[in-house]
Design goal:
Layout lengths: L1 H24 L3 H19 L8 H35 L6 H23 L9 H30 L2
Helix pairs in contact: 1-3, 1-4, 2-3, 3-4, 3-5, 4-5
């Protein structure tokens, strides 16, 4: 009974996360650019010594320079979370490893592809095959991370 509750909880969380991804993807190009610009500015403030003393022009140039990595890191991260949540919704202890990894990764990849198609209809946005690949890698990393954590826990428990 406890096992089914866990799977249902992860399924609900995965659906909520997918809705959040859809919401971010629905923002037009200008709003999306503002979002990544704010994150780029935070990166500068947190990690670049003296960033606050730079001129506005130099700060904006930095924000423009880190825009691409910020956006792609966001893609990979949001899909790593999605892959982890789908893993939790589909994980069965007795299932073969390839299914444990493959099903959540495939679901995350399919969702990434549909999300990029959705962006074709959002003003100022575009659907990119590259983003599907980045999202797919993010989902895979999330799934592999949680698989690694479970195997570590199982090894630790078996040595007790």
């Amino acid at each position: 009974m406890k096992y089914n509750k866990r799977k249902r909880l992860f399924l609900v969380l995965a659906i909520i996360w997918m809705i959040m991804i859809f919401g971010f993807s629905s923002r037009n190009g200008d709003l999306s650019g503002e979002d990544s610009g704010r994150v780029g500015r935070l990166v500068g403030e947190w990690f670049v010594p003296g960033f606050d003393e730079w001129s506005e022009v130099k700060q904006n140039a930095f924000v423009d320079k880190v825009d691409f990595p910020v956006r792609k890191t966001a893609h990979a991260t949001e899909y790593a979370v999605l892959g982890t949540l789908i893993f939790g919704a589909t994980y069965e202890i007795q299932r073969k490893k390839r299914y444990i990894v493959g099903i959540p990764w495939l679901c995350g990849t399919i969702y990434a592809a549909t999300d990029e198609i959705h962006q074709l209809f959002v003003p100022g946005r575009s659907g990119q095959v590259r983003d599907v690949l980045i999202d797919s890698c993010g989902a895979f990393i999330g799934v592999m991370l949680v698989t690694w954590m479970i195997s570590r826990r199982e090894k630790k428990e078996s040595t007790k």
